[in-house]
UniProtKB/TrEMBL annotation:
SUPFAM superfamilies: P-loop containing nucleoside triphosphate hydrolases
Segments passing through the bilayer: none
The species this protein was found in: Halomicrobium mukohataei (strain ATCC 700874 / DSM 12286 / JCM 9738 / NCIMB 13541) (Haloarcula mukohataei)
Record-given protein name: ATPase associated with various cellular activities AAA_3
The keyword Nucleotide-binding is annotated on this UniProt entry: yes
GO molecular function: ATP binding; ATP hydrolysis activity
Domain AAA+ ATPase span(s) in chain numbering: 37-178
Classification via InterPro entries: AAA+_ATPase (IPR003593), ATPase_AAA-3 (IPR011703), CbbQ/NirQ/NorQ/GpvN (IPR050764), ChlI/MoxR_AAA_lid (IPR041628), P-loop_NTPase (IPR027417)
UniProt entry keywords in alphabetical sequence: ATP-binding, Nucleotide-binding
Lineage, opening ranks: Archaea, Methanobacteriati, Methanobacteriota, Stenosarchaea group, Halobacteria
Length: 342
């Protein structure tokens, strides 16, 4: 199986999404990494920066069945998972699946839903199935939730508790574009006012996605890089400004996304830069700061910057040496399996 499959998948999706959106290449890369890593994404940004359009465009380009749920305080768990509906014509109850039965579910403004409804969504994310009227139903595969939230409007919202934030693999921030990018947006939509997410074509099929996921699972991680992942997460737990640091799920998530990043960059092995590039997205939403740190306006991002600066990456792990280590691991595995080594 060619190592270029994840790279080709990402480039194809990026180019297709780019026919509508401007300046979102890094976000598309991270969404692709989440998809290949079987993880969910928390997308934060002020209103009007195309969070929902980005998610919908990514779903269409990736060939994923897409649903969107507008989270509101009056939304019930059954509005997401589904319920049994009585049909008077037949005199029987019929199971009606909710919007969660899709490959990609966008939960818009997740912090506007009540904790009970949030829990129903997050439980489905964790378990991969839902129970409706005593019947357990598996969710589709692939299954990705992209939850959006607005960081500036807190009135009438229910902040996600730490344990529920931990279920999101990545937290991504959609920033306001710089002036040049915003001008390109104006020019593009001035020329084609009807342009929207519906203009994006499917460019990936299920077989390609499945093959790319298998490639990611085979990416080699040297022992020194694994130790680097453990050191980074441990450093968040020991930081003086942190009450609760990264969980074991954070360590696993950081390892998996590093493998996916390596694969979409055409490598069969992870390098420390893969870990560093995604450390903020994996750890940002998982850190709980001390009361003193919050009063002093310390941010989780600054803590992660401290950790990345303080923890020394594997010194000898250049791309060349990691490639050599990968080849040696393959040779050793072949010998263990009964192959001959000359």
């Amino acid at each position: 199986m060619a190592m270029t499959e994840p790279a080709a998948l990402y480039e194809t999706v990026r180019d297709e999404v780019g026919t509508v959106l401007v300046g979102h290449d890094e976000l598309v890369e991270h969404l692709t990494i989440a998809l290949l890593s079987r993880g969910h994404v928390l997308l934060e940004g002020v209103p009007g920066v195309a969070k929902t359009t980005l998610a919908q465009s990514f779903a269409r380009a990736s060939g994923l069945a897409y649903t969107r749920v507008q989270m509101t305080p009056d939304l019930l768990p059954a509005d997401i998972t589904g319920t049994s509906v009585y049909r008077s014509q037949t005199g029987e109850f019929q199971l009606q699946k909710g919007p969660i039965f899709a490959n990609l579910v966008v939960a818009d403004e997740i912090n506007r839903a009540t904790p009970k409804t949030q829990s129903a969504l997050l439980e489905a994310m964790e378990e991969g199935h839902v129970t409706i009227e005593g019947e357990t139903l598996a969710l589709p595969d692939p299954f990705v939730v992209i939850a959006t939230q607005n960081p500036i409007e807190m009135e009438g919202t229910f902040e996600l508790p730490e344990a529920q934030r931990d279920r999101f693999l990545l937290k991504l921030t959609v920033d306001i574009p710089d002036r040049d990018e915003e001008r390109r947006v104006l020019d593009r939509f001035n020329d084609a006012p009807e342009l929207d997410a519906e203009s994006v074509e499917q460019v990936v099929d299920t077989e390609t996605l499945t093959a790319a996921r298998e490639v990611v699972s085979d990416v080699h991680v040297a022992d020194s890089v694994r130790e680097y992942v453990l050191d980074l997460v441990a450093a968040t737990r020991d930081h003086p400004d942190v009450e609760h640091g990264g969980s074991m799920r954070a360590s696993l998530g950081l390892l998996n996304v590093a493998k996916a990043r390596a694969a979409i960059h055409g490598r069969e092995y992870v390098i420390p830069d893969d870990v560093k590039a995604l450390a903020r997205a994996v750890l940002l939403h998982r850190l709980v700061l001390t009361a003193d740190a919050e009063l002093s306006d310390v941010s989780p991002a600054s803590v992660i910057d401290d950790v990345l600066a303080d923890v020394t990456p594997p010194g000898g792990d250049s791309e060349t040496e990691l490639a050599a280590a990968t080849e040696m691991a393959d040779v050793e595995e072949s010998a263990t399996d009964g192959g001959s080594v000359e």
